[in-house]
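Exercise: predict the structure of this protein bound to 2P0.
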Amino acid sequence: MISKADVIARYLPAQLTAGERGEAFAPSNIALCKYWGKRDQALNLPINASLSVSLAHLGSRTLITPSADGVDHVLLNGEEQATGSRFATKVVEFVDLFRRNSVQPLTIDTHNNIPTAAGLASSASGFAALMLALNDFYTLQLAPEQLSAFARMGSGSASRSIFTGFVEWQMGQREDGMDSHAVALNACWPQLRVGLVKVATGEKKVDSRAGMQRTVESAHLYQSWPLQAAVDLEKLHIAIAGRDFNLLGATAEQNALSMHATMIASWPPLLYWQPESVVAMQQVWELRSQGIDVYFTMDAGPNLKLLFLDKQQAEIESAFPGLEVVAPFLHQQCTADPSFTDAIKEA
Ligand code: 2P0
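Solution:
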């Protein structure tokens, strides 16, 4: 079995050159076709391809500087994390993959601007920002696909947070995983909105990593998941290319519920929902029955992420007070998309 360090070492210069500082931002992302299940746990290689939308300004910013007092420091939102704590260990282990024999101690300072109330995972944007900051600090000049593949080794979903807009994480086939990286889709949808519904915050009892492994190992229903994901991925490509919002929303919602069905069918069972999650789902279905185009998706947690278009934002905000709304596509980012003028006309 190939290790992360072996794979990464092939792409690093013989001698590392550290700079004065390395800094980067990476967005959080919401999967419309979920990543659920690994074919290689060491390298975070997925059983299925996934597709997400990045959350624009919501994410992580990481600054790397040389440490002045001879030891590593890991900070999160301004607070020093104890050596050996879960967070500091994950960060330092990832950094060690790149600095290898370099003994230069570092200060790694990460700020998440993801509202804690939204209950969004920060490992995707966190490892993506850390990877980009390392690339900057050591002047690694890695290609975007390599940055994505390496961020994946920190956390699978981080492979998608290297890019903005719609992003597909291709599952790849190679044993070293270097073809398992994300790519940005050349598509823009300025009217698309993501609404973050807070149901509950706090640590979950079973994290995604353990949850997906339990599902793969114990749920017979999981056998149907790779096919479901492949069909949904295709539908999402069609929906994005044709700006077919109902196809996009319906596919994302069914995909999320299918993933949750495999979790519930695991043993011991995994149910991330709270009673309030079900109330919110029923509220979405009620709004749809009234002709309002709103759909939801959910990750391995109790919170819902709503999908809708800007023209229905006011109605949806009044149905979900306190909704945090994100516009993933800003107009100025859309100029590279040849179909952007069509998207503008639809507005
Ligand atoms: C996703 N999730 O596609 C899916 C949907 C959660 C549910 O990616 O073990 O933290 O670090 O590769 O990336 C969360 O899993 O798992 C996730 P690891 P990760 O967004």
